[in-house]
Each structure stands twice: as structure tokens, then as C-alpha cells.
Amino acid sequence: MHILVNRWINKIKQLSKVAFRFLHSKETLIYFGFVGLSTILWWGHAMDTKRDATIKIPIIYKGLRENVVLTESLPSYLSVDIHDNGKLIRETNSRDLSITLDLEHEINQPDGTITISSETLRNRLKDILSGTTNIQHLSPDHIVVNYYQQYNKRVPIKLIGEYGPAPEHQITKVPILDPCSIMIYGRKEIINNITMVNTLPFELNNIRDTVQVRLGLDSIANARLAVDSVSLTLYAERYTEKKFTLPINILDVPNNCSVRLFPSHVTISVRVAVEHFNLLQASDFRAICSYPIHSSKAMLPVEVKTSNPYVTNIRINPSSVEYLISTH
């Protein structure tokens, strides 16, 4: 077995020596040198030879306003047959080329047709292709744009749904829709009858903090909405109650009169977010009664005024008081 292995190793060594002598022989080096030179000359000739090729050039359309509707789709690229030398064709294929067609100033009627001629397309292509490139054929060789303009109007968004705070929490701000109004597009006779756009119905309960959700908009037959959804933000905070005793002030008392109230003070209970509890003072409130123009009234209602933005749900006890008017 050992002898057999040695024989194979010797044969491999002999073959390696033969291959090495062959690859490094003068004749072999000359052969491969000619092959390489021929390849270089062939490549150079191919690059300088005039050739035909087909390239695809993307089309970018500008100036199509939101209220413009196209009756059929437009081509997204031009298929262009060109004739040029191989090197320039290769460079053209490696470049990120496109043409732009600006339709803004062409759309000036309620509806119509715009024809972009073959000459216009060729001129756009000449601006981006090499000067030696011969444009042989375009597909499509012209572009037809059929359009009509929709009427538009801005209408408010109406919130449709139910929401509520978690126990011992309260909604602290008016819900915010963003956007609160949108543009709608359609035929004039349809748009004129639309006064608002509804959100899709929703239900959101047990709100404990600021919540933001996305609401879809209810579609309208034969009308197009600028957006299909809006953002709704709801604000909730945990609350507690705070009580104050306030003196009652009488307004508009004639100079020759005086008014006594029974009782002369009221107790108020107000709801406030926990984080604003210590910011609330009795001086933030004012209890008032108006002088009775008709003295037949038995009781005067008490009203409490405040400019504090954190206060909600003011309860007054008592809510009305007896009075005695005396003249002097």
C-alpha cells in the first residue's frame, strides 16, 4: 500500500513538472500574448464600430395639479432605437437619463387634449444624448394627454365616534383633528352640495393620558378627497377635587340700596388634575350675584367665575341664596 501511494505521488510530481515547463515555454507565452492582444484589438474595434441599440428613457411629468384628472394613463418611458459607436452606446446605458415634460402651462381649459409631438420628444432626447447619436425610432412617437379639471372646495372634518376617560380621569382639552379641514375635488354640481367630511366611526374608552390615533375618512360618491385619513389627539389626566369657601359679591347695586345675603358665603368643589392641585388657590375664583331688577324674586342664583385653565366641573353649594334689600 505504501509503495502504491509513493508511485502516485511521483506521477503527480512528474506531471506538475511537465505542465510548468509547458506554461513557461517560449511558445506558450507567445501564444497567450497574441490571444490577449487580439482580444484588446477586438474590443477596441467593437467600441469604435457603429452599432444599433434600443434604450429606455423614463419620462417625468410635471405640472399636474391635484384637481387635474387624466382619462387614461400616460407612458412611463420612451423606447428609443439609436445608432452610434459602441463606446458611446455603452456610456449612454450606464448613465441615469430621463426627460421631463412640464404640462402646467398646457392645462388651461376645464377639459381638453394635449399632444406632445414626435419633434418635441426628439428635441428632449437630443438634450440628453450625445451629439453623434442618431435617433432612428421612438415608441411611442408622440404622447396624447386627455384631461379634465375638477372643481375644488375646502370643507371641515366632522368627528364621528365616542371616547371617554378612565375612572378618576377626565378629558382636559377639546379633541384636536389634524388637519381639521381638507380639499375635496369633483364635478361642480357634486362639490357644491358637500358641506363637511365625516371621519369613520370609532370608539375609544379608558383614556388615561394623551392619545393620538389615525382615523380614516368616509368616502363620498363621485368626489375625491385630498387625504384619506386625519390625526386625532385626545388629552386626559387623572383628577382630584378641591374645596374653597368664597364670599358672594353683589353686582350692580344702586347707590341708595344695600343688599344682605343669607348665607353670605358659598362652598365650591372643583375638579382639577392632580399635577395642578397645588397651583389652585381661592383667589382664582369669584362668587357673584346680580342685583335683582324685579324684587319679587325669592332667591338669587350664585355664579362662580374663574380664569384658571385647569379647572373643570365647578359645583356650588348653595347654588342660590336669600336676600334682603334695604334703602337709605
What's a concise summary of this model?
By secondary structure, the chain is an alpha+beta fold.
Q: Can you give a write-up of this model?
A:
- The protein is an alpha+beta fold.
- It folds into four domains: 2-47; 49-149, Beta Complex (RNA Polymerase Alpha Subunit, Chain A, domain 2), CATH 2.170.120; 151-234, YbbR-like domain (RNA Polymerase Alpha Subunit, Chain A, domain 2, Beta Complex); 240-327, RNA Polymerase Alpha Subunit, Chain A, domain 2 (Beta Complex).
- The protein has five helices and 25 strands.
- The chain has helices at 2-23, 26-48, 86-94, 118-128, 188-191, and strands at residues 50-62, 68-70, 77-85, 99-102, 111-116, 134-139, 143-149, 151-158, 161-165, 169-171, 176-178, 181-186, 197-198, 202-207, 211-216, 223-225, 229-234, 236-251, 257-262, 265-273, 285-290, 300-301, 303-306, 311-317, 320-327.
- The strands form seven sheets. Strands 10, 18, 20, 21, 23 and 24 form a six-stranded mixed sheet that branches.
- The longest helix is centred in the N-terminal third of the chain and has 23 residues, at 26-48.
- The radius of gyration is 43 Å and the shape is elongated.
Low-confidence stretches: none
Tally of contiguous helical segments: 5
Question: Under the CATH scheme, which architecture of the largest domain would be assigned?
Answer: Beta Complex
Query: How many structural domains?
Result: 4
CATH class category of the largest domain? Mainly Beta
Report the count of strand segments.
25
